Amino acid sequence: MASVVKGVIARSVSQPVELVDIVVPDPGPGEAVVKVQACGVCHTDLHYREGGINDEFPFLLGHEAAGVVESVGEGVSDLAPGDFVILNWRAVCGQCRACRRGRPWYCFNTHNARQKMTLTDGTELSPALGIGAFAEKTLVAAGQCTKVDPAAPATVAGLLGCGVMAGIGAAINTGAVGRGDSIAVIGCGGVGSAAIAGARLAGAGRIIGIDLDDRKLADARELGATHTINSTGLDTDAVVAAIQELTGGFGADVVVDAVGRPETYRQAFYGRDLAGTVVLVGVPTPELTLELPLIDVFGRGGALKSSWYGDCLPGRDFPVLIELFLQGRLPLDRFVSETIGLSDIEAAFTKMHHGDVLRSVVVL
């Protein structure tokens, strides 16, 4: 029988979010209903509200979540009611050319639940990133659920569902940072700080955090940055010179751009060592363009990479990272700036926009 629960929606562009009743259907074949325990407030949710993703309003917001499986549909054999899971937005198909090549983290045919959650009047909702977890319950594809150790608090575990995994994966999976390597991270919000934590976990030797905000640089130092640069008023040449000064005059082995703007990408491109790696994990807006001398692209060598969801494979990466947290080796709890209720999300957007928090986390 379908459930009526409370959820937070964005009804139209740039309007305040609303806490309303939503209808969650029973799971169909290959689907699961999850009772949400906690969900982080991610900048992507604000992008949805502002119409920056698409115009398929109304949106059921929230996607960075953990909870307990309540029920599963026909054909689901690897999940059961009571399982503690992290939700992910890239349930892999197992059949596309990327999956068949053994690279499922690049799956070109990821999927979500087929049924729609609705308002009580029948209006279909578009769940953020196919999840929609600013709600007491949500309906997802079973492949979007990754079982992890229930000893981890949901407030911490859910963060791996998006931003923290994106940052850690950008450093470890995409950038392949190794022991003794140097890395610079441009933008030390939630994703950038996670890249710093990932670099520390991987044993990087010199970890440089770069941001305009001293509060974010302080967070970066707590999460593993060995050096920080406040780039306020600095042009590309000055930022590059500062990175080189901290890396023996050469530049960093890996530079992660967690902002996604032409100016920060140029800083990353020229701030790396010869044959170094640039990783773009900050998401650009559609109108942005980049111009670089082609001779520099050739002459500097190395690799220019984009990181999709930290190139993660949830079934592989989530349990390992939760285990590292439980061992005290990965301070995921440091990302939780505050816990809030469903009615506090609009205020959390304001705090996030002003850089006052790494993550506000909704507790249900």
From TrEMBL:
Keyword Oxidoreductase: yes
Name used for this protein in its record: S-(Hydroxymethyl)mycothiol dehydrogenase
EC number, as in UniProt: 1.1.1.306
Pfam families (UniProt xref): ADH_N (PF08240), ADH_zinc_N (PF00107)
Start and end residues of each Enoyl reductase (ER) domain: 12-364
Top EC category: oxidoreductase
Family from the record: Belongs to the zinc-containing alcohol dehydrogenase family.
PROSITE patterns in UniProt: ADH_ZINC (PS00059)
Domain of life: Bacteria
